[in-house]
Structure formats: structure tokens, C-alpha cells
């Protein structure tokens, strides 16, 4: 676990404390929700960009060549 210290304006800290939002589980839930929202927003941005300029289709042979190259890379000795 990591300990995080933050500085908040007094009024905000009091209001958040009264609402029970400064408890570790509440902060964790808020952070997880925000991270999820940001991931979804990034994914939607990429999806929109791909929709505007889609990747070219690959033939089955090209797909197989990519798979073979990946497998060869995975089998290669690491230095």
C-alpha cells in the first residue's frame, strides 16, 4: 500500500469529511471511477480516429505472417 498526503482548502476538507468522502475506501472508489472514465474517454477518442481513418484490411496470409513474426520474437533468446 502507498500512503498519499494531499493538501485541500479547509472548507473543502471539512465538507468532504462531513460527507464521509475522506475515508480510504471512498477515495479509492472515487479514484477507480475516475480512472475508468478516463480510459473510456481515451478509447472513444481512438475509436473515433480509427473510424475516420480505418486501418487497411489484412489478408489471411498477412495475418499469419504477423503471428509467425510475433512467435519468432517470443522464442528468440533475450539478452
Report on this model:
This protein has 79 residues and is mainly alpha-helical. It has one domain. The chain is 68% helix and 0% strand. It is built from three helices and no strands. The radius of gyration is 23 Å and the shape is elongated. The two termini are 33 Å apart. The mean pLDDT is 94.
**C-alpha Rg, in Å?**
23 Å
Compute the number of strand runs: 0
N-C termini distance: 33 Å
- Estimate the global geometry from the Cα principal axes: elongated
Which ranges are low-confidence, i.e. pLDDT below 50, for 5 or more consecutive residues? Answer: none
Biggest pleated-sheet summary: none
Considering DSSP H and I runs of 4 or more, what fraction of the residues is helical?
55-70%
H/E series: HHH
- State mean pLDDT (0 to 100 scale): 94
Taken as a percent bin, the fraction of beta residues is under 5%
> Strand pairing plus helix content: what structural class?
mainly alpha
Integer tally of domains: 1
How many alpha or pi helices? 3
Task: Write a concise synopsis of the structure shown.
The chain has about 80 residues and is an all-alpha fold. The protein has helices at about 10-20, 25-50, 60-75.
Strand and helix map with partners:
Blueprint: H1 10-18, H2 24-52, H3 60-75
Tags for this model:
79 residues; elongated
